[in-house]
Amino acid sequence: MRERRCYLTEARLWTLTYPQEAEGVAFPLARDEASNPDDRDLAIAIVGVLAGAGNRSAEALLIKICSSPHPEAAATAMQALYQRDPLGRHRDLYQRKARELVLGAIEALGDWSDPESRAILEAIVARDSRSAAGYLASRSLKRLQRLDQPDWTLMALSILGATSGMEVHEVEWALRIAVRQPIPGVMVILRKRLQDAEAEHAKFCQEAWDTGREGGINAVTEKDLKSSFLIITLDWNFDNVLKAFAEMGGELTETERHRLHFLGYDSDSRKRLFKLVADWK
Questions:
Q1: What is the dihedral of CA 193, 141, 2, 56, to 10 degrees?
Q2: For residue range 184-227, what is the model confidence (pLDDT) as tens digits?
C-alpha cells in the first residue's frame, strides 16, 4: 500500500524501464544532503532499485548514504541495501551502524545468525529494552534464536502459514529467509495461503455484491482480485506472499499473474508503467 500512496510503484517501474535516465536524475539528488527530504527519500529508493538490478555504482552510493548525518536518509538507504543483500555481504556495515543505534541496521541483523550480531543486539537490549532500538534489537534476537534451532524450518513454515496472532507480524521476515535458502514444503504452504485468501475473497464478493451483474459474480470477483486492494484487507501479507511465490518459481493462476502485473512485479515493467501514467489523466 505504501508503494501506491507514495508513488514508489511508478518510480520503480520508471527506473526499470529507463535505468540510465533514472541514474542521471536520482544519483545527484540522493547525494545532496541539502535536498528536500521527501525528494531525497524517493531518489534513494530509485537508487535501491538500480542496485537491485545489478548497478554497482548504485550499491556503492547506498553504502555511502548509510553514513549520512541525516538519520532519515541513512535509514532509507540502509533498508534499500539490506533488502537487496540476501547473502549479507554488507553485514559488517550493518553491525557498525547497529552499534550507532541505526534502526534499519538493527533490524537487518535479524536475518543472519552469527555471534557478533547476537552480541551487538544483546548489548542494545541490556542498555535500554524499552526504546525503539531496544524493541527492534529484541525482535531481531528472537529471529536469530529461531534460526539457531534445529527445527527452524518448521518454525518458518508455521510463520508463513499464520494469518492471525503474533506470528503474522513475522511473515515478511520469514519470506526473506525462504527466498534466499530452500525450506522443504514452503511452496505447498504458500500455495495454500494464496488459495485460502482467494477463497475468502470470493466468499466476501458473493455476499457483498449483486450476482445479477454482467458476467455474474465470478467475473466481478476475478476483476476485483486482479486490480483492487480488497484482498489485503483479508490477508495483509497476500501480495508479499504472491511476489515471493512467483520469485521462487511457483506456478501462478491467470488471475494471480494479472495481479502481479497490477502490482508492477511481472516482467513487463514498461507496459504497466504506461498504464499507470495514463490513469493519471
A1: -100
A2: 999 999 999 999 999 998 888 887 776 555 555 677 788 888 88
pTM of the model: 0.87
Sign of CA pseudo-dihedral 123, 125, 126, 132: positive
Distance CA 173, CA 169 (A): 8
**pLDDT at res. 1:** 42
Taking the C-alpha atoms of residue 221 and residue 24, their distance in angstroms, rounded to an integer, is 42
Contact status, residue 235 vs residue 245, Cβ threshold 8 Å: no
CA distance 79 to 137: 16
The domains of the chain are located at 1-84, 164-281
User: What are the residues whose beta carbons fall under 8 Å from the beta carbon of 42, sequence distance 6 or more?
Assistant: 6, 7, 8, 11
For residues 130 and 215, give the distance between their C-alpha atoms in angstroms, rounded to a whole number: 55
Place of cell 557478533: 116
Cα first-last separation, the chain: 21
Residue with cell 527466498: 179
Q: Is 118 exposed, middle or buried (0-12, 13-18, 19+ CB in 10 A)?
A: middle
Quickly count: other Cβ atoms within 10 Å of residue 199's Cβ.
11
The pair phi, psi for residue 226, each rounded to 5°, is: -70, -30
The band of 280, judged by pLDDT with boundaries at 50, 70 and 90, is low
Strand, coil or helix: 189: helix
Contact criterion met (CB below 8 Å) for 108 and 94: yes
SS3 state at 236: coil
Q: Are 158 and 220 in contact (CB under 8 A)?
A: no
CA–CA distance, 32 with 17 (Å, rounded to integer):
24
Interatomic CA distance for residues 265 and 196, integer angstroms:
22
Q: Which amino acid is at 160?
A: L
The greatest distance separating any two alpha carbons of the chain, rounded to the nearest whole angstrom, comes to 63
